[in-house]
Structures are given as C-alpha cells and as structure tokens.
Amino acid sequence: RPSHPSPAAAAFTAARSAPPPPGGAPLEEPAKEPAMAAMTAEAEGAAVGASAVVGELYTSAECNWLVFYWLCAWLVGHHLFWFLWQCGRAPLFPESTLQRYRCRLMRSQVYCAISTVASAYLLAQCGWNAFDLLHKFSPDHQLFFTMAVAHWMISIWEDMQCISLLGAGLDSEAVLVDANIFLAQAYLTHHIVAGFGFYMINRLQGCTGIGAFGLLYELPVLMMNHREFAVLCDPRPAWMLEKAKMEEFWYRYKFAYVIGRIIPTIVYVYSLLFWRDDLALISWGEVLLYHFMAIFFTYINYQLLNVLNGWYASDNRVNNKHLEAQYEARVLSEGGTLNGENSRGKDQEMGVDDDAGDNVVNEPEPVCDEVGPVTQANQLKEVTEEEFYKDSGATYEPGVVWIEIDGIAYDVSGFMDLHPGGAATLQRFMGRDATEAFHRVRHSLSAKLMMQKFAVGAILKKDAKYRIFEQRQTFDLIELLKPMVLGAIGVGLFYPYSIYADVLAALPPDAAWASFLAPGLCLCGVLGALSVGPQFMQSPFSFFWNITWHSSVIGVCWPLLSCGFLLIKRPRPAGLPWFTPSGAEFVALGLFLAEELREQAVETKYWSWHILIGLVLALFGLYMRGAAEVVARAPEQTAGAALLTVSIFLLCHHTRSSGKAKEAKKVDTVVGVFLGAFFSALGLVALNWQGPAAKEAVVSLWRYSWSSFLCSIPGMLACLVVASEMFSKCYVFSPSWAIRAMANIFGIFNGLSGGFSSYYWCMWVAWYANNASVSIRHRQHHDELIASGNFHMVPSHFVGTRGLWDTFRAACCAAIWSLVHAPMRFLVNQILPEELRVHSFSLPIFDLGEVANYGVAAYTAPTHSQFYRESPEHYEVSIRHLDTSTQAGRRDLRRGANVVQDLWKDKKGESVKGLVAHLMCIIPNVGGTQLDKEIRLACWQTAEDAANFRARQRSTAALAAAERRGGWKGLAEPHAGTDAEITMRPMSKIRHQDRCRDCFRLLESMQMGQKAPKKCSTCGGKGREYPFF
Q: For the whole model, what pTM was predicted?
C-alpha cells in the first residue's frame, strides 16, 4: 500500500515535488522571493537531515580513498585468507592456477559472509517503507558499498588469472559453448555492472534499497563456493558422492536462492505497483539506475537457472558414476561377473548386428543395412503440409521424393534405386501418405531402423479441432504480444518521469479546461515528429497529396488519444483515498462495454449472460470505491477516459473498415499521424489566445532543462510502441481483438496496483466474467465449425487467444491449488499414523470422462538398476480384485494393504538383486462396483532373481499360506471370464528405444530384447540413455 513517511520524509517530498516557479525562469536557477527561498531552504534542510541517519556522510574524495583501502584489504586477503584457513600449509603466494582459484574462492567466501551480514544490518535499520529504501543514506551505506566496488574490481583480476577453472563442474552441453569462456564472459559482464551500480549509488546517495539487496544477492554464492571447493577436491568429499546428502545441499541452495535472489525481485515488482508516487519523486539519474539494476539482475538470475541446471546435472552424473563403481565392486567382490562383458563389439555399439532379424518378415531383406554416405544427418524438424508437397517433386529424375509414414516425412531420394521393390514403389507414393501400404508389408526390424536415416520430421497438419495446450497459434500469439506488453510496461515504468506529468502536477486546480489539453497536444506533436518526421523531410508534398477522409479521421483521433492519456494520469485532488477509481479503470470498462454493445448489435447468435455479471460487479465495485466522488472532484479523469475510449474505438474500427488494400491503409495511417501532429500544433497556437491560464500552460512546457526532456523520451517512445502495436493488431488480427487487448492492459495494470482489497475484487471478477463471456462465444462458434469440418477457417488469432486464455486459467488454478493442497497435505500427513498418508496431484489432469476410474500409482527403481549392461529378461504383471462389499472383504483389503506395504518397502531397497523397476497401481471401485483393483508390474533382470526374491520374503509366504487356507474371503470369485488374480508375461522380447541428443532420431538395437545403442548410426551423436523401464 502507499507508504506513510515520517514528517522529515514529507518535507523531503515537498521539497522535491515543488512546482516550477512562474515567470519563465529556467528550472536550474529558479527565481525565488525571500520568503519562498527561506521556506525552500528549510524544506531542503529537513530532507538532508532525513536522508542521513547517523553521523556525517563521507565526501566524494573520502569515498574514493575508502575504495582504495578496500582494494588493498582484498588484495591482501586474496593471499592471506586461504593461507590462514590451511594453517600455513598452503603457499602465501600461489603459483599454480588451482592454488590461485582456491584463493579466489576463499576471498569470495569472506566477502559473501560480510555482505550478507551487512545487508541484514542495513535492511534492519530501515523502516521498510518507500522513503527508507529509496532515500535513506548513511556512512554505513557508504562503507559497505565502497567495499562492494573494490570487491568486484578485485574479482575481475582474479577471474582473469584462472579462466581455465571457471567452468569446473559444468558441462559445455549445458551452455552449448565452452564452459570456461562462457562463464568468463558472464562473470566479467556481471562484475562490471555490479561495481558500476554500487559506485553510482554512492555518487547519487539514493536508491539505497538496490544496494542493500545487492549485498543480499551473495547469500547463495556462499553455498556455491562451498560446492566449488568440493568439485576441486580429489577425491570428492563424501557428501557430494552420497545421493541424499547431495540432494539436501541443492535443497538448501534453492532456499538460499529464494531468499537472496527472488525476494529482491518481488520487492522491486511490489515497488512498481504500490510506490509509484514515491518513485516519481526521485531524480532521473536515480530512475535509470533503479530500473536498470533491478531489471538487469532479474534477467541475470533467470539466465542463471540454465547454469544451475547444468551444475546439478553434472553433480548427478558424478554421483551416478560413483554409485556404478560401487555396484561393480560389490558384484565382483561377491564372485559374480558384470553383465555385458562379452558384448558384441563396436558394431553392436553402433546398432549394427550381422545376425539381426526376426521371424515375422514377409518381404525380401533390403539390399544392405548401410546405404552408403548418409545425406540426411540433419536434425529432425517440423514440416508443414505446404513444405511437404512443395519438396515432393513432380517427377523422380529431377525432383526430390518425399513420402509420409505415420505422420513422419521421409526423404527417400537416395534410396530409390536401393529399395527391394524398385523405384516405382516409392514413386507411386511420392507426396502421399504411404502408412497403410508400409504396414501391410510388415517390414523387418532392420528396415525400420534404416528408415531413421531418411527421416525429415513430423508433418504439421492442419488442425481438425481445438486441442488444449497443443495449438501452435498460442505460442505464435505470445511472440506477437511481446512488443505490446513490453511497451505497456515501459509506459508504466517511465511515464511518471515524463516532463508532461510535471506540467500536469504544476497546473493550478482552477485552471481552465483548455489548459489541460496543452500537454497532450504537445505530446502528440512530439511523437508525430519522432515517428514520421524523417519521411516528411524526404518528401513533404507527398503527405499533402495523400490526405484522404480516412487519414483525416486518424489525424483527429490521434490528438484526442494523447490528451486523454495524459488527463487520466493527472494527479487526483488531495483528500481522495488511494483506492478511489482512476481514469484508466474507466477506460477499461468503457472499451469492454463499447465493444460488447457493438458486437451484440451486429451478432446476437452467441450471446452470453456472463457479460451482465461482469457489468453489474464492475459498476458495484466502482460505486463502493467512490466513483461518484471522483467524477465530482476530478472531472478531468472522466473526461480523459471518455477521450481515450472514443479515440481507441474509432481508430481501431476505422482503420480496418476502410476497405482499402493493406499498403494503402499504411499510407493513410502515416499521413494521419502527420495530420495529428499538425492539428496539435494548431491547437497549441489556439490555446495561447484562450486566456492567461491557457497561455501559462503552453509556455510552461518549454521551461524544463534538457536532462528532464531526455528523461521523458523513454516514456514517449513506450507510448509510441503501444500505439503502433495497436494499429498493427488491427491490420493483422481484427479491431475487436485490438480493442479488447487494450482494455485488458488497462484493466490488469490497475488491478495489480490495487490487489483484492477495498472492492478491487469486484473488478477482478468483472474482468474474468467479461473475458469468459468472449471465450464462451468463441467456443460455441468453434464447435459449430468443428462439427461441419471447417475448423481450419477459424482465424489463427482466435485459436491462439483461446489457447492463451485456457493456459492462463490452468496456470492460475494450479497455483491456487498448490497453495491450498500442499499445506493441507503436510498437516494431515503429520497427524495420520506412520503407515498412512494422503496424496494429491499438484497439477490438473485431463478429464477422461465418466467411464474412467482414477486411482493412485507409485513407481520405484533401485539406483543400481541403471547400471545393468544387458536388457532385463523377466516381466511380471499381476492383477488382483478385492470385493469390499462385505466386512470380510474390507478386512482383507486392509490386511492386503499391509502385505503390499511390506513388499513395497522391500522392493524399493537397494539390496534387492536383479530388480529393475516396480510399478503398483490401486484403483478403488472399478466400474462403479465395489471391487478394488490392484495392478503390479515388475521388471527383473532374470526370472531367477524374481523367484529368489519371492522365496525369501516372509510376507509373500504368509500371503500364499493364507490363500491356501481360504483365509482371504474377500477375493473376488471367478466370473464372466475374470479371475481373482491374473499373472501375465510378455509373448516376445521387448523393443528398447532411445533418442539421439543431436539429431533426435530413434536409436534401437538390431536384435530384439537388447538395449538401445549408445551412439546414433546416422550422425554419430550420443543417446540420452533412457532407463530400461
């Protein structure tokens, strides 16, 4: 919520937000009367007193000396800290790269510890309000910030000395380039920006919250340095080689990452929403520093996630290798042999076997398994239908022959003469679907493996119906929306620092209405000059020759749009509560309502009553928050909303309905922007003749310094981006889509600034009801087209918008559900007996209909199972039914659950020999009956391993004895061909497939039952080494 500063802070605010003096004096040296000068000096003194907490601040020269002293201290610490930590066993002046790297890590640990404590100290000293985090400055801040400047300077020198070790513990696959070079460049950029940021905070003596949270950023680095020390150890410490301890380390690191990196980002976003008035009072230099540092390091943290995943994957691989070595040593110590010792050599490694083949081949074998040089070794890609038909030549000799099998495009141009059936067989299916003919022949396994060499990729066919989360149009729409969203964010960030906002704040409350239009007309003129000025200078007369009725309408609406935008941003009169509606909310409601009325008047077929709920809730929320008082005391807000609503509505519909070609519409838009700037200039000239107040408003526009004008340029450019994107979406999509997009932008930004308190929740519900109404109408229209087989006629932006809306709803509901069910599940599991627990899904699952029965499945696999060299040979599937309609059946269910729990605990243990994986499913009340179904699927290396396990399990023996005695009354009797328990085994060997990391093709052994090869026979890339099961 808006901050409540102290009296000193209020004086500081008054001093910085004082309006410019009349009389045309420049802002750098304003003309002051003696009484005003005394008041200003008193306010400035109060502000200076409020900004310094304890003692007198260091001068600029003293700060430079502090940086020099810290440089000397860190340089000595680089040599001394590691030497002391090793009790003198390490050299004081390291010679090798490894020793220098360890000195770097040790000095970094000392800095991170000091900075974390300093951050806690500085944040504890402030009152956690906007004034303290933006303006409060003390000698303590200078001391710690100069320490940070010196640290980053020394860090650059340290990194240059040990570049070859910066990527230790990080595979180049994680960053796609050399890890050492990548991290060296990333560290250099980070160190320069961080050091410059701390230096500028000291110079400006503001934005202290950025510096305090910057010190807190080093909290997770403490743990990462600890890992770096472990990576450099040989052998590595025990905690890094034990799976549980390694996972615990990364869990703690994630917690530190959230505290040190995520919370500062949350505070920054919070400041954008609730500290807008306070941020508007800081200087333009502080504005750039504040937003640049926050956005830059938020982006760095986002990119760091990929590196963290690489480090985590590297630690997992090292851990797995250690476990594999332990497993092999244990097997050899027990007198056994490692599976796969007599492997079939390099040919089998590459997936080639001279003895390959199976017994179900009804066609001649191909001429050879290797088809000479591979010409299709590129990565698999998505192929559009247009590309598929275009690249399938009309004739065999000069063209390229592509065929389709199971939705995959294959380029068989190099296989025409090698096909056993001849080239005519493939040429007959050129550019066609050959799936049915291919499967009718029943090709051999070797032929299917050979096909991977000619695969191009999956064919993207036109959608026959809407499928949630699968629509490509959603991702395309997100990319197209990025400029508009970023422009809107830029308007929110940089508009408060526009000189026109200062002009609006400086106007007296009783100024004439005409004077309120001056800033908007000036903004329209400046934006018009920036956008079409270069084209006008090249051919000025062409603009006048191309003036049409449509361009004239755009020229009139453009100044109205600019004036309305600035009017809704005018500060509200003093005394109005912070939660009263703003003009932007009126704009959002007006655009939604205007477009709904137009659409209902044109098309009433798909009407939805949800729109009435949204309208009633919106009006109720505005009334309860004092909309009537805003209209009475701040009429410029209502007038600005009306101008914005009318101008946006007319601009969007007029540009699309002109009936001209796209290029002609673009010319009309450019000429219209020029006319808008021209009309704005005429309006400013006319305002000079309307009276002293209007003339003063126009003259005041030119009193500001160049620094204030330059600071306003980002805000003006952001406004230009949003306006241009609005025009673009009218052309590419539709006017209705563009209007609703603008209404959503206004509504969402205002909703985020208010949260859910003070009847803001009514606006959120109204916003949802309106969008739901539009979604329901589109869904009805889509269903009709799907039923008629014309879904391809739906515009792509309609499908993409529906997919985006569904994704948004699913993400919000999943987040709410996670917040609700996770604490409840934890609480209930703490109360339940140790043998029981409750479980719930964290993400929504697909609705399979009323005929589907949902249950719970649990999967486990011993760690050593991934180290088996040969494929498993024994599979077991058992299905059991229990009748719970009787008391005996329910008792047997509980007894069986205990037996299954014992089996489960035994099977998931690392000591179970030969177990590859085990999956158990429990489905209650199958098919609406009172039968509980239990399905167990187990995978073993050999049948002997499974038999030995069952023989030594007492619980299994007790279960068999109970069944023989007839003690299990609840077992369902065999009826209708269904037994109480069914055990099944595979009829043939299992086909195991893998994927190539480089070209994404399938990898499969030439012999059934064998594990997939580790390398791709097409491109030579490594496989992903998926588990057996």
A: 0.69
